[in-house]
């Protein structure tokens, strides 16, 4: 961003652009305003180092897309939630952290995911080698640990696995995963692909990469991929439909050099992007309208969403990328809101290509499966107003104390399915189904009951037995805010002409 401004400045100095006298005066006024704004920003106390960095960037370039803001909040080198480690010894997960995920609630969750992949391996012909286990966004590594413990009981599949891949951008979390899966004393080496160690329970190589693109795609490989609470953390763009009035009364003159797309003789419906900008100095929760539930434990937000006055490159393209978005514009009209996550579409396309092959990566025999577990609407609707901040198990404003709270948004499962099917003609998509239905069909209740009986058999206290039962009920709770209802499961598997549905999605285990 700064290099662009510097190049423009050098152009003026070299005579490549010489403003007329009125332009010079405007430029001088702009400089004085910039100096004033800079001094005001210096005086303002930002809530976190990342907030100050963001404000300085916005001051130089103007308001930024929400996706850029989210990406910085989560993965910035200076104070990013997953990469900055502002608070010494902070752990995002668990009771003492900011949120609890399903694998941390009960081992049953990870065990059932392992069973699901075993069922897919059986149904797809029991490939004897070339099997890969891939997890995107592995957290502390708990899910993979539970999956591996389960898969070890199925010796033939266990022996068919070549490697385990963990897609993780956070150095801190990579180390936590290595300690859990390989041991604290296990060495970790680095290569062009990523970081390497050996799993202590299976002796299989584990490779950590910062992006899934670093994992080689082989036509003979059978990848089993799980993405649990990963898609919800991908950055989103927000757009609002506006009624754009006519900008001309007659055809443009031949000397008019402005963009024809910005000139209309009739009112039009257009999408405008919601951008992030700093809140006015001295803002309060009351002046900003922060919901009471998000203002109890944080200072007033440093930033806010504002509507772009003109089209942006994102607003011209993304809302036109799907007939679902175009239908909302024509059906709802001015005021309609949509959230779009281009990164989710890119990841879905990658998953589908690994399972079914693509033009860039042909695969003679589609194999493997991808399982996405996250929260979002399962009825095909496009998410709106779903951006949330979570800190210490409470909802907070996503624009307050950037870097200290987890940011997430509902997953557009229909968009994920669209992208997967568009990427590969050799895959099919099942779901999304409610987590309660998926885990129930996988035999979760029976497994929880078996764990409770085992606890009683070894003389465990009643409280421990109750914890097992309580954890299972939490996973499948169908109440208004229950995990069993809010969370969904979606599967990408090889296309089979409707002959087979995966277990958990209306099908049964096939040996």
Report on the architecture of this protein:
With 511 residues, the protein is an alpha+beta fold. Helix content is 37%, strand content 18%. The strands form three sheets. It has a nine-stranded mixed sheet, sandwiched between helices. Strands 1, 8, 9, 10 and 11 form a five-stranded antiparallel sheet that branches. Strand 5 and strand 6 form a beta hairpin. The longest helix is centred in the first third of the chain and has 23 residues.
Shape: globular
Give the averaged pLDDT, no decimals.
86
Class from secondary-structure proportions:
alpha+beta
| Tally of contiguous helical segments | 18
Give Rg in angstroms: 26 Å
Compute the separation of the termini in Å: 56 Å
Largest sheet: 9 strands, mixed
| Low confidence ranges | 1-37, 252-262
Q: How many beta-strand segments? A: 17
- As a percent range, the share of strand residues is 15-25%
Helix content: 25-40%
Biggest sheet strand order reads 4-5-6-3-2-7-12-17-16
GO biological process, one term: mitochondrial respiratory chain complex I assembly
Function: Arginine methyltransferase involved in the assembly or stability of mitochondrial NADH:ubiquinone oxidoreductase complex (complex I).
Family: Belongs to the NDUFAF7 family.
EC number: 2.1.1.320
